[in-house]
Amino acid sequence: MKKQLIKAIFVGLTLLLLNNCAFKPYRFAIQQGNTISEEKVAQLQPGMNEDQVRFIMGTPLLQDVFHNQRWDYVYYLKPRHGDIERKHLAVFFVNGKVDHVIHDQSPTHAMKQNA
């Protein structure tokens, strides 16, 4: 009788552990693109040259061949759990100098994850 009870408890605990593993798989946090912080954006000023922008923001993620006077910086973070974070910054140049910058008005744009 004791052996059957111990065996039943062992099988029950094993099934419980396997059941928990099936419902909560490990997910990696996925981070892509350039880090866009308010501190970096505040440093960008009209009249800066391309090297100065590259020093502050890094190499742009997107440089369109047809619009080479525009650099796009994109940041994407999909955490293990929670909301997806996306940021975008576009720097426009005229004659190799910063003309204007367009960026997300809020620090983060979060979207609900389909999990």
From TrEMBL:
GO terms for molecular function: protein-macromolecule adaptor activity. It is found in: Cell outer membrane. Pfam families: BamE. Transmembrane segments: none annotated. Coiled coil: none annotated. Part of the Bam complex. Part of the outer membrane protein assembly complex, which is involved in assembly and insertion of beta-barrel proteins into the outer membrane. This is Outer membrane protein assembly factor BamE. It comes from Candidatus Berkiella cookevillensis. The gene is bamE.
